[in-house]
């Protein structure tokens, strides 16, 4: 049986809506009963005072439904930090969005948001790269996205990024983002040279 501690964990990644502390629900159900309510909860750190009753008729499950939702501690697969997968969030996932009940939350709220930002900027970057004519404003976006995506390890073709930088130097040299991209590229090239040596 997993041990449960009531001490507050200082390093929980906060959820934008629910914060970073367990949210008591006012419902009292014994911990053992909660753990029996879903096979996967056997060893997880849970907070029984947060329990919510599930409406299993709204769930998508093959054999075992989730009879309760309870705040549960999770470790982010991407950044390794702890976060809470909240009972309320689970209710939304499994009854409103109707995700399969065996789905689990493996990324913390910050990493989830960052992934969405990366996706959005990569889409804009790709769109702008395909456009035959782009405005000065769009070139600024392209420069910013290139710098952002390079920093996040999404773009690795330094020659393509170099072409964007050179074009920006010709057309919008006064834009501060161009200097930033130039510095990032220099650093990336230096790193690449060290790795190859
Ligand atoms: Zn994370």
Question: Widest sheet: strand order?
Answer: 1-2
Note the run of SSEs as H and E: HEEEEHHHHH
Which structural class best describes the helix and strand composition? mainly alpha
DSSP strand (E) fraction? 5-15%
Indicate the radius of gyration in whole angstroms: 23 Å
Percent helix, as a range, is 40-55%
Largest sheet: 2 strands, antiparallel
Bound molecules: zinc ion
Low-pLDDT stretches: none
Report on this model:
The protein has 197 residues and is mainly α. The chain folds into two domains: 31-107, no CATH class; 111-196, no CATH class. The protein is built from six helices and four strands; from the N terminus they run H-E-E-E-E-H-H-H-H-H. A hairpin with a 6-residue loop joins strand 3 (72-75) and strand 4 (82-85). Helix 3 crosses helix 4. Zinc ion (ZN) binds at residues 76, 78-79, 81, 107-108, 110-111.
SSE arrangement:
Layout: H1 31-36, E1 52-53, E2 68-69, E3 72-75, E4 82-85, H2 87-96, H3 109-130, H4 136-151, H5 158-171, H6 176-196
Antiparallel strand pairs: 1-2, 3-4
The chain binds zinc ion.
Task: Please summarize what this structure is.
This protein is mainly α and about 200 residues long.
Tags for this model:
single chain; 197 residues; mainly alpha; 4 strands; 45% helix; binds zinc ion
């Amino acid at each position: 049986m997993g041990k449960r501690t009531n001490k507050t964990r200082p390093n929980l990644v906060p959820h934008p809506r629910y914060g970073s502390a367990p949210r008591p629900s006012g419902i009292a159900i014994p911990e053992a009963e909660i753990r029996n309510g879903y096979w996967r909860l056997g060893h997880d750190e849970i907070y029984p005072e947060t329990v919510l009753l599930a409406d299993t008729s709204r769930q998508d499950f093959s054999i075992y439904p989730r009879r309760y939702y309870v705040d549960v501690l999770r470790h982010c697969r991407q950044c390794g930090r702890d976060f809470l997968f909240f009972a309320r969030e689970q209710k939304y996932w499994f009854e409103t969005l109707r995700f399969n009940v065996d789905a689990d939350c493996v990324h913390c709220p910050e990493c989830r948001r960052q992934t969405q930002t990366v996706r959005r900027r990569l889409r804009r970057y790709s769109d702008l790269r395909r456009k035959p004519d782009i405005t000065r404003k769009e070139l600024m976006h392209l420069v910013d996205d290139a710098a952002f995506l390079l920093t996040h390890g999404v773009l690795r073709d330094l020659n393509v990024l170099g072409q964007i930088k050179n074009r920006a130097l010709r057309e919008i040299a006064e834009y501060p983002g161009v200097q930033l991209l130039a510095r990032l590229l220099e650093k990336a090239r230096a790193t690449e040279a060290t790795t190859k040596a």
